Amino acid sequence: MHQHNTEDVGIDISKSKFDVSFPDRSKSVVYHYTPAGMKKFIATLMKLQPKRVCLEATGNWENRLVACLHKHQIPVSVVNPRLIRDFARAKNQLAKTDEIDARIIREYAQVMDPRLTPPLTDAQRKMREFTSRREQTSKIIIQEKNRLETIMDQDVIELIQQSIDFHKEQLRQIEKELKALINADEESRKRSKILQSVPGIASITAALLISDLPELGTLNRKQISRLVGVAPTNRDSGTMRGRRTIGGGRVRIRNGLYMPTVTALRHNPIISAFYKRSSKTESQKWSHSWPPCTNCSSFSTPWSKKENNGRQT
């Protein structure tokens, strides 16, 4: 096994190709986003042995390449695109091309040293796709129900209702499959049991956390909160104390935690007490986007207790 060097590789990825910025080349190298193209790229990396390969999260286009890199045990960091753009602006790099983006991503990795993205197990990868499909199906049902409110023709109403019934059945099948995936995998079953010990979290939310937040259990609650995007951000200057806000991070996790947190406000005394302390006056009440912050602290707590033989952390 070769020693990893201290240089990073940056990738700008798209549907049909990916541009790669290597530390020893002035121009990027373009690879076709095909099995043959990835094989050629991996062969180059195996010789180079970079410190890490860094690329942006691009709405799932990156998944195949990330899985391939992990398969060959090549360190990889998938970062938020907003961080890359902010880094480019800080360097006064306003022009934007695929080649420039690949170089900026490599420079970002070199300067900021982003956290490595952990590999997904086969169960986690399948769970992620099923939870994504569940989210899509739920949105379709809402859209169809909204259409019912504006349609007058009875024949069209019946067609829309058939579509709603079909997608509701698909939703039931997806949820059944998610539960089966958890039960079939020992590690997922263990994680799900720990997560569901938190009032408000059931099997579907547990599946979302297991698949989309594999770092859970390896980071503390503050790090997890920042990763998900529910850590309140200060807006203070001098004597002015601005309103705390949340944002960024993993939107699917944040959205998926909202309703479980609303439920937990009734049934989880820790979250309920925290919410009441944080909303003593009307001017301090949280907006609708704040409650997931409490759940993020909560679901890391049982993990810490279980993984540390019951010791409080």
TrEMBL record:
Assigned keywords, A-Z: Coiled coil
GO biological processes: DNA transposition
Signal peptide: none
Keyword S-adenosyl-L-methionine: no
Sequence ranges assigned to domain Transposase IS110-like N-terminal in this UniProt record: 9-154
Domain of life (superkingdom): Bacteria
Coiled coil: 157-191
Official protein name in the record: Transposase
